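Hey, resending since the last one bounced:
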Amino acid sequence: MGRKVHPTGFRLGMVEKHRSRWYAEGGEYTDLLAEDRKIRKLVFETLPEAQISKVEIERFPPAQVRVTVHSAKPGVIIGRKGATVNALRNDLQTTTGKRVKLDIAEIEHPELDALLVARSIAEQLSGVSRTSGR
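The structure tokens again:
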């Protein structure tokens, strides 16, 4: 049996950046890590049609959080007159209890992002099985 290395962990620091950038010690670390998971879950569940690839989180000392959402369809996240992005920001602030700065980054070539391609294939396959009556 060979040894397995996680592909993201193998590339961190060289090719790929960390998805969470902050420092904490002891019990605070576990609390912030759980909060990061809640933030990512909220973003992915709130906007499933936005083709979100990744969510980066940065923390600054006086209770500030910067969340960067990388999406192939940033217009879906922003919404009409910024209503959707404001609602998401308010949801994140109530979840974390901190001031949240929300940035939206567009993915220029979504066909080169592995996660987006995999989701697209899964949607196409589930659509085929529904239309064929199986």
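Residues 89 and 102 are 6 Å apart (CA to CA).

Sorry for the duplicate.
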